[in-house]
Amino acid sequence: MSDPSYFSKYKDLAFERTDDGILTLRFQTAGGPIVFTGQTHEDLPKALEEVALDADNRAMILTGSGDVFMDNLDGASLGEIFKPAVWEKIRTEGLTVLQRLLSLPFPVIGVANGPATVHSEYLLLTDIHIASEQAAYGDFPHPAFGITAGDGLQVVWEDAVGTARAKWLLWTGETIDAATAQQWGVVNEVLPHDQAYARGLEIARKLAATPRLYRSLQKQTLNQRLLRRIVEGVPFGMALEGLTAADLAYQQQ
Length: 253
Known about the structure:
single chain
């Protein structure tokens, strides 16, 4: 059986699937750790839609390449983010990614194979979260660029760790290691680096063996409240993020 067309359609997203239906989505740039770009931002919601519609997928592992989940961003590739029409495209894509991650009709296992200081919320939206002992979590881009963290980080981190810890993390730009993330309740298991993906695959296989309807409806049951918070909080948060993005053009004058 040939691979689905989406396996080779998106250059920053590498796919592979086992015979028993475990799909792995791996962020990558030229086979190595990803440099997240505007194209990645545009492609990810489209890819997740195709993943959701593929009945051969029974569970998914979300991870990065090499020793990094995601820690590098090409801000310029996002385009003229101070223009309303450009930002509205980004805002729509950003909300759609989060909704689709929570709404896939099967369980998603997040495997943090290294630093997750860009879009760490993707991992926090998975159903079970495994971390390599080399993983680290934080928010590098927003404090560095002076743009508010309204694209889901504010909702997902607060939901996971509480208000005080979320504020500390998103204000300071500091990072926490995998052990601290587990202590905070962000991560389910921390394993030696070379065992993290295998553990994720083990869990995914167990969940994929359950009935299809159970997998789909359990997903909806357990994610209902968080999905509602995403839908309520992210459009507003990204509107405020867009205002700070627009302000960058005036700061440079």
